[in-house]
Amino acid sequence: MGAIAKGVRRPESKLGPSLELYGHVDVLLAKGRGDLDVVAQVQRMPGLRIAGDVEVMSHAALIAELAERVCEDRHPVDGVYELAVMALDELARETDPRRASAYFLMAALDLLGYAPQLVACSTCDRPLVAKPAAFSAEAGGFLCDQCALPSMSLVPLGAIKVLRLMAAGDLETYRRLKLDTALMSSIEGVLTTQLEHHLDRRLKSLQFLHQMRIQRGVN
To answer: Is 28 helix (H, G, I), strand (E, B) or coil?
Structure first.
């Protein structure tokens, strides 16, 4: 929902210090004259703050944009708020922001009913063999050798195993994993492909992150 904080940029404003970008706050809103309510009172909730690094803030934008996209104005979806708060807190803790946002994407896909099939072939339902496999967002998940097209690229087995761990919600084990850049890129590729297949348009924050990595020469 939208709200306006009047006079928040003034040095003497009591609202300004607590209204940090991507901060977790408790607000009291007053009914406004138009579509926007008015912030009457705000209190910052306990927790770590998001660092001002460009990449970290970009991943925070991804979390916030997706949470906003799946919720209509004044019609919250159960679990989305709690998931976004958890993801932003994890982002503030993580040294690699890609890990935090990837975990959020998997949890969001599961919450919305779009989680990919990770254990059996999404076309014929045969159990997947422990080897690299092709992924198809149109089919809804990974494909076995019989159902995959020869032209399809394969996702490494390590990435598939990490995706299964994420789908199980085992955050503590996930935090302890050592994920290199190539493996993280494979995981992100599966999750973003699955997500964008079910959204009506691409997330602007994802586009920005992709462009930023191209400029830095990172996959």
So the answer is: strand
